[in-house]
Amino acid sequence: MPYFPFKGIPRFYDIGGFLSRPSMFQRIVDIFVSRYSTLEIDAVAGMDARGFVLGPPIALGLNKKFIMIRKKGKMPNCVSSGEYECEYGKRGGMCIQKHALSPGERVLIIDDLVATGGTLSAGIQCVKLLGCTVVECACVVELKMFIDPPPESGMPNRTKLFEGQGMGDVKVWGLISEDVLVNEAKLPEGYVDDGEEH
Which residues are catalytic? Predict the structure, then answer.
């Protein structure tokens, strides 16, 4: 997974690299399925939008239902998290349909990458609003520099965020971290950073 500059972020990671390689994509799905096959899980929830790519094959491998946690305003009949902060700035919240889960169900939340934990914290809020438990949050990439940075760094602290929102008991698992993702992308001639902010 080579990194490249995007919207002022010097090391942006994109899962498109392995999605275009079926054997690698399947291997990643298999790793997630193996990790969670022995845990009591009733549902797999994918975070908008890359969790919608990763979550369904993992849910199928576990023979569990898949549900979507979407950006606020994208689905009817929902409960919504509050606003949250992520590495890109403030966001308006996430939502989940009221009937997607039954109280007491145990949920695995899937996303492509966790950095500051803001997006995942919004997803956890949504699941808890329906009276359910988040078993774990799982991502392909975990940027560990945000887990518990020293206060003088000025960086967001995911541990303090989760504890401050009463979700310090929810574990986050990442398949790989930034310390092994050291391949800088070779940008093609004429490369333009013209994507929209996330």
Answer: 50, 87
